[in-house]
Amino acid sequence: MTALTGLRVVELGSERVAFAAKLLGDMGADVILVEPPGGDPARAYPPFLDDQPGENRSLWWWHYNTSKRGVVIDLDLEEGRERFRQLIASADILLEAEPRQRLAALGLDYDDLSAVRPDLIHVAVTPYGRGDALSDLPATDLTIMAASGPPWSCGYDDHSLPPIRGPMQALHTAQHFAVMSVLTAVLHRGVAGKGQFIDVSMTAACNVTTEAASYSWLVAEQTVQRQTGRHASTRPSGETQQLCADGRYANTGVPPRAPKEFRALLAWLRELGFAEDLPEAVFLEMGANWEGPFELSRLGSDDEVTAIFGAGREALKLIASRLPAQDFFIGCQRAGLAVGVVNSPEEAFEDEHFKARGFQVPLHHDDFDRTITYPGAPYAMRGSPWAISRRAPHLGEHDAEVFGELGETP
Amino acid sequence: MTSEQRNFVAADSPAETSVPSPDGSGALSTFRICDFTGQLAGAGATKWLAALGAEVIRIEDPVRQGRWDILRGGPPYKDGERGLDRGGAFNNHNAGKYGITLNLRDERAKDILARLIEISDVVSENFAKGVLERWGFGYDRMREIRGDIIYVSNCGFGHVGPYSDFKTWGPIVQAVSGLTFTNGLPDREPAGWGYSYMDHTGGYYMAIAILLALVHRQRTGEGQWVDLACTESALALHGPALLDWTVNGRPSRRDGSPHSNRNAWPPMAPHGIYPCKGDDEWVAIACRGDGDWWRLAGLIAEPWCSEPGFAVHAGRVANQDALDTHLERWTSGRGKFDVQERLRAADVPVAAVQKPQERIDLDPSTEGFGLWPTVQHTVMGDVRVDGQPVHFSETDWEYPRAGPCLGEHNEEVLTSLLGFTPEEVATLAEEGVI
C-alpha cells in the first residue's frame, strides 16, 4: 500500500495546482482532474512530442499530470455544478486556483462544498491569498517572483545586467506549500475528524523562500546584493564558480579551510603533477602541516592564514583550468571538498548516481505505443513507494468511468 | 525515577501510555519529533511541523556548543550583538521548537536519546551519511527501540548510490542538479541562485516526506525510513525539460539557452525584467498573448508598437530581442512603481522587482497576510521571522516560542517527558552529559 491509497483528490485544472496534485497522485492518491469543455490551456504548452502540437502531445502536460484520471465538467452549467457537487461528496481534498470570487459566484466555494462533504479539505492557491484584492490582477510565474524577492538576489556581479528569475519556481514553491498543507490537514482530520479551508499565497510562499535576503532585513535591516553564481550578500564575497578545461563550470563552494583539506588538496595536486606549476604551493604545504585550529577569523589580518587560504583557492583554480568539470568535481569530492559540477538538467539526469538510485522511470504510453523515460521520485520512501500509476489523461478520458462510480448511468 | 523506567521497552511494544502526549490544538499536536536537523535544509522542514503544532525537540551537542549547525551563532545579529544564542538565521529557522543538548559520546546521553526515540513519532536529521549509525542509532536500532518509528534522513546525494559519501551544501546541490545552469542569460556563465533555494526546497520535500510517512502510519500502523537526496528532489523540478530530452533529444545546453527571464512554456512576449529609473531598479513584465500586448501597446502608444513584426503573438515571440530593446527604452525613464501602477491599471501582468525592505516593510500584502511574525527570544528579545505562506481555517500556524537557546529546554523536556527530577538534570549538566 502506498501512503495515500484511497484518498480522493479533486483538482480544478490549473498550472498553479497541477504539480501539487501530481505529487499526491504519485504517492497513491486517486486524483481526478477536472477540465472545462475545450480543455485546460496547459494542454497547449510546449514542448510537444516530436515537436508536433496536439491536445495530448504536450510534454509539459504529460509531466505535471501523471497519476491522474481526467473528466470534463462545465461549471458554467447547473448540470455541471451538480455533477461537481457529487464528485466533491466523494472526495477528501479539493485543490484549486480559481479567480478569487469565481467559486463563490458559482455556489461552489468552501461553505457550499463543506455542506456536501463536511470533512472536505479545500486548498485554494492564489497570487496574494483569498483575502487580498491584488489576487484579482493578472500574474505569471515571473511577476510573482519579482514581487516576492527571489530575483533581487539572483543574477550577476555586474548590476547593469538584469536580476534573474528561476523559471517555474514560483509555481513550484507555492505548490510545495499546498502539498504540505494538504498532508497536514489530512493528519489532523485523521485525529479530529474535521476538514478545513486552506488559503495558500503564491507571493507569500516566495517571500519566505529567499534565505538571508529576508532575515538580514528582518533582524538587522541589512540589504543583500546579488553576485554571480553565489549567495547574495551584505558584503561582497569571493567568486566560487570556476571555468573548467572543457568549457563547463564547477562551483567550488566553501574553499578549503582545514589542515586536512589542505593536505588532501596538496596530495591530489601532486598526484596530477601540477604542484610545480602552482607558485603558492609552499603556502599550501604550510596549511597541510598547520598545527592547532586554523582560525578563519584571522583572514586578512594574519599574513600566514591569508596566504594559506589564498593558496587553497589558487590550487583549485589551477586544477579546474586543466580538468574537465566532471573530473574536477569527482576529484575534489574524493579529497573531501564540497564541490559541484554545474550540470545541465539532462547531464544530471544521465549521471550514474541518479541512474543507480532509479531516477529514470520508464512509462508505457498506450496512446502512442511508446515507452517514455520520466523523471522519478523526489524522495525514496522505503515503506510506501512512489510510482507513476498512469500517463496524463486525455480530455474527458475517464468521464464514463468516474461518473459511473458516482452512480450515474451513461 | 525507577530503574524500570530507565529500561526502555524493546521492539514492537512502544510504551506510550505513561508518557504525556504533546498537547495544544494545532493540526499536528499529537506528533512528537526527535529532531537532529540543522542549517536550513533540515531545520526548515521541522519549522513547518512546529508551526502547525507538532512538538519538535531539537537536539544539539553541548561539547561543540551546537556548532554542528553553523548558523547557531552566525549572522545576522540583532543590534550587532554576537553570541551562540544570537544567531539570526538560527532563530529564523528554529522558531517554535524546543532545544535540548545531549553529549552522545556518553552512554547516559545515549540512554536518554533511546528513551526520547521511544516516545517520538519521527526521527529527523540532515547529517552526512552515517553519523547517526556511528552514534549507535542506525535505522535498525531505532526500530528496535520503537517498532513504528519514522526515520527521515536528508542529505545531498542520499544514503544510497555512488556519490552518497560526497559532501554538499545548497549551492552544490543546485549546481549538480541543473538548477544553477538553468538560471542565467545566454552566452554568459550561469547566474545560479543568490541563496540556497534547495535548502529551502529540500526542507519542503523533507516536510512532505515526514508528513507522508505519518499519514501512512496513521492508516497502517507502519513506520519507515525515507532516504531523501536533496539533489534528486531538485532534479525532479526540471520535468518538462527532462522529457524534452528523453522524448525529443533536445538538451538544455544549446545555443541561446538558458534564457531564464524569457518564457517558452508557454511562449510569452514581451517577457522579462527591464531597467527602471534609479540605481538597480527593475520591473518584470509578461504578456501572455494578444490581449496583454494590445493593452500594453495601447498604454505605451509609441510608433514601434505598430511595427508589423510585433503584430501577432508568434511575431513578438520571434522578435523578442527587438521588442525588449524598445521596451527597455520605455521603462528606463520611469520609476518601477510608476510602471507597476500603470500596467496594473491596464490589466497587464507586472511587478516591480522588490528589494527586501520594499516587500517586508512597505508592501501591505505581506503585512496583511501576517507573514513576518514577531517571536520573543529569550536572549534577543523581540525578533521578526519568516512566517508560513498559508492560513488554515481551523488549525492555523503559530510560533509558540522563538528558536531555542542552547539547551534551553533541558530541564523542561527531561522532567516532563522522561521523568527526571530537576536535581538529576542538574547533575547530568554538571557531568557533561547534557
Overall description:
The complex is a heterodimer of chains A (410) and B (434). Chain A is an alpha/beta fold and 410 residues long. Chain A has two domains: 8-209 and 377-405, Crotonobetainyl-coa:carnitine coa-transferase, domain 1 (Rossmann fold, 3-Layer(aba) Sandwich), CATH 3.40.50; 244-343, no CATH class. Chain A has 17 helices and 14 strands. In chain A, the strands form four sheets. In chain A, strands 3-2-1-4-5-6 form a six-stranded parallel β-sheet. In chain A, strand 7 and strand 8 (230-233) form a beta hairpin. In chain A, helix 1 (18-25) packs across helix 8 (169-192) and helix 11 runs parallel beside helix 13. Chain A is elongated. The two termini of chain A are 32 Å apart. Chain B has 434 residues and is of the alpha/beta class. Chain B folds into two domains: 3-235 and 371-430, Crotonobetainyl-coa:carnitine coa-transferase, domain 1 (Rossmann fold, 3-Layer(aba) Sandwich); 282-352, no CATH class. Chain B contains 18 helices and 14 strands. Chain B has a six-stranded parallel β-sheet with strand order 3-2-1-4-5-6. Chain B has a three-stranded antiparallel β-sheet with strand order 9-10-11, with helices on one face. A two-stranded antiparallel sheet of chain B has the order 7-8. In chain B, helix 2 packs across helix 8. Chain B is elongated and about 85 Å long. The model of chain B is unreliable at 1-21 (pLDDT under 50). At the A-B interface, helix 2, helix 6, helix 7, helix 8 and strand 6 of A face helix 3, helix 7, helix 8, strand 6 and helix 9 of B. Strand 6 of chain A pairs antiparallel with strand 14 (390-392) of chain B, so a sheet runs across the interface.
